[in-house]
Amino acid sequence: MGILKFSVPEIFLGRNSMKYAGVCARRLGAKKIFFVSDPGLESTGWVDAVFDIFDHEKLKWVYYSDISSNPRDSQIEEGARLYEKHGCDVVFALGGGSPMDAAKGIALVTSNGGRVHDYEGANRIQKPLPPMVFMPSTASSGSDVSQFAIITDMERQVKMSIISRTLVPNVSIIDPTLLTTKPRDLIIAAAVDALSHAVEAHVSRLAFPLTEVHSLRAIELIMKYLPLTLEDNSLANLEQLSIAGTSAAMAFSNASLGIDHALAHTLGGVLDVLHGIIHPILLPSVMRYNLPKCVDKLAEIGKVMIGGSMGSPEATALAGIEALENYFKSLGVSTRLRDIVPERSKIPQICEMATFDSCLLSNPREADAEDMMSICHDAW
Amino acid sequence: MGILKFSVPEIFLGRNSMKYAGVCARRLGAKKIFFVSDPGLESTGWVDAVFDIFDHEKLKWVYYSDISSNPRDSQIEEGARLYEKHGCDVVFALGGGSPMDAAKGIALVTSNGGRVHDYEGANRIQKPLPPMVFMPSTASSGSDVSQFAIITDMERQVKMSIISRTLVPNVSIIDPTLLTTKPRDLIIAAAVDALSHAVEAHVSRLAFPLTEVHSLRAIELIMKYLPLTLEDNSLANLEQLSIAGTSAAMAFSNASLGIDHALAHTLGGVLDVLHGIIHPILLPSVMRYNLPKCVDKLAEIGKVMIGGSMGSPEATALAGIEALENYFKSLGVSTRLRDIVPERSKIPQICEMATFDSCLLSNPREADAEDMMSICHDAW
C-alpha cells in the first residue's frame, strides 16, 4: 500500500444548515464575498435567501451568475476579472456542479494567475486559493467536497478535469431543504451521478478503506432512497440523498474515478448534455469491461445491489450489474447511447479524446481508445 | 435529524509518510516549529528522525518533551511559555495521546490566553489556534484526528475533556512504521482504546451515517488485525491497525463518546493508569447498561463481532458483548475493576466526578452517579 491522502472540507449537514453561510464566511475572514450562482437558482428564491443571510451578517458581496450548465473557460475569466476588480476575499458558491466548479475556477485563476487551461490534469496548482464556502443545491456533483473542477475548453470542445487538493473548499454547507425545489428529472440525474461516483470510486485503483466505507454506503443509500424520494419528496428522504451524495463525494474525491467519467466528460464537452444522464447509458458497460480486474470489489457492490450473494463473486458481480440496469430502466431514463449521440460516426473521436482524461488513470483496467469504442458499442 | 457537523484533518497515511512532516509544516507557514514529544519516543530514535527532516527542510524548531503519560495542566503552561518566548508559529506533535493532547493545550493557551482550565467542556474556544501538524506513534488515541484534548487538572485530580472543532489539527501524518518500535502491551492498549472509541461512537446519540461507516469498519478491522499483529508484527498488519484507529477517530471525533470514557477519564485522573487498560474492564458492562436504548446499533456491532446474526437483534447484541469479553480475555489483559482500583470505597467518588464529563452527554442512555456505580459494581 502506498501513501494515501484523504482530504475533505468541514461539513455542516442538515435542514436549515444554510443559516451558517454568513458565519462560516466571516470565520474565514470575509469582508467582501464573491458569490457565484446561476439563473436557475435565482428563480427558486434561494439566491435571495443567501443575500438576506449575508446582509444580516453585515457582509458585503458581489454577485456573479453568468454560468452555463457546463461552465466555460470564458465565464471563469470574466469571473476572475470581477473578483479582482471588486477586491473580494472569499468565494461563496450556491448551486449544482456548474456554479461550484466555476467558483473553483475563479478562485484558482485569481490566486494563481494565467488561464484555467494551465492547470488541466492532476496536482498542477502551486499557490493557495482564497477561502471557499460552498452550498450545493443538488445531492450529487460533490464539487462541494471534492478535489475536482470540470471546466469546458470551448475551442477544443472538451471538458477539462482539474484535480488538486487545494480545490477542496474550506466548508461545505449541505442543506436538504434546497432540494425541495428540484424537479423530478434533476433529482434523478443528480442521484444517478452520485451513484456513478460511488461505483467508480469503489473499484478505483486508488480506493482504500477510508474511501471504501463511503462508496459502499452511498450505493446502498441511493438504491434505497432515490425510489422513495420519487414517491415522496419529503425532507427525511432528501436528507438521505444528501448524505449519500456527500459520502460518494468523500470517496471519489480521494480515490478518483474511471472510464465512465472519462467518457462522460468528453461526451459532455462535445454534446453539451446534462452530465447525470450519461451514466445510466455507460456505467453498466464500463462495469462489465472492468470485471476481470476487480471481481471482488464488483461483488461487494453486487451484494448491496441484490441484497445478498450468488454462488461466486463473479456471479454476484454480474447479478449486481444486471440489477443496476433494471434499476436505471425503472427510473425511465435513457439507457442507450444512441438516444443521446446523434451520429455513431462521432464515437471514435470521442474515445480518442477520452484517453487524455485524468480519470482514466485510476480505472481498475487499462483502456485505450479502441477499448472505449468497444464499451460505447456495447452501450449503443 | 438536527444539523450534523463533520470535521477531519487532511490525512497522509502509509509507510514512510513521515517524510511529509517538514513539507506540511512549511505549507502552513512554519518558520520556527514548536515540536512536542516525550522521552519514550526519544529512546526509539523517531524524535531524531524528525529533527533530520526539519533540518533537511531548513526549518527551525524548539523541542519540548516534559510531558507525562497523562499530560498535566502545569506542563501545558510551561509549554505555552516556551512557545511564546521563542516566537514559534506552528505546533508539531509526535507521540501517543499524551504529547498530542499536550500540544493542543499549548496551541490553545498560546492563542486564546488564560489557563487551559478555562476551556473545559464543549465549544468554549473562541479564537483560531496556530497551525498543527501531528504524527501519531500509536494507532489509537485519535488525538491527531479528533476535536478532543484531555488534560489533567492536578489540583482536582480530574482529567478535563476539552472539545472544540478548532482542536482538529490541520494535518495528520499516520506512518505505521512508527508502530514497529511499540511493545506488545502498548499495541494492545492502543488497539483496545480505538475499539472503545468505535463502539461508543457507534451507539452515541450524535452518530450519523458519515460517522457510522467508520465506527463499524474500525471494529471489524481491530477484531481481525489486533490478533494477527500480535502473531506477526508486520507493516501490513500495523497498517491495518493504523487505518482502524483513524476510522475510529473520525467517528468519535464527530459523534463523541459515552459512559465508558466518562468513567475512564475520571479513573485516569484519580489513579494515573494507562488509559487503554481501562476499557476491557468497563466497556462490556457499559454496553449491557446501554442495551435497552440502542438494541439495533449494538446488534450491528454484534454482527461484526460474531460474524453473523442470532434470532433477534437483542440476542445478536448480547452475543456480541459476550464475544467482546472473550476477545479481551484472549488478549491476557485485566478485565475486572478490582485489578486496577485499590479500594472499592473509591468508586462512589469516581462516579460522582464522572457525572461532570462531557462524554456523558452523548451516551445513548442517561446515567447518574448511581447508575455508573451499578456499572462499576458489575465490572468489579
Automatic annotation (TrEMBL), chains A, B:
Top-rank taxon: Bacteria
InterPro entries linked to this entry: ADH_Fe/GldA, ADH_Fe_C, Alcohol_dehydrogenase_Fe
GO molecular function list: alcohol dehydrogenase (NAD+) activity; metal ion binding
Signal sequence region: none
Alcohol dehydrogenase iron-type/glycerol dehydrogenase GldA domain segment(s): 10-176
Tagged with keyword Oxidoreductase: yes
SUPFAM superfamilies xrefs: Dehydroquinate synthase-like
UniProt keyword terms in alphabetical order: Oxidoreductase
Gene3D superfamilies reported in the protein's UniProt record: 3.40.50.1970, Dehydroquinate synthase-like - alpha domain
Domain Fe-containing alcohol dehydrogenase-like C-terminal intervals: 188-380
Family label: Belongs to the iron-containing alcohol dehydrogenase family.
Name of the protein: Alcohol dehydrogenase
Organism annotation: Desulfocicer vacuolatum DSM 3385
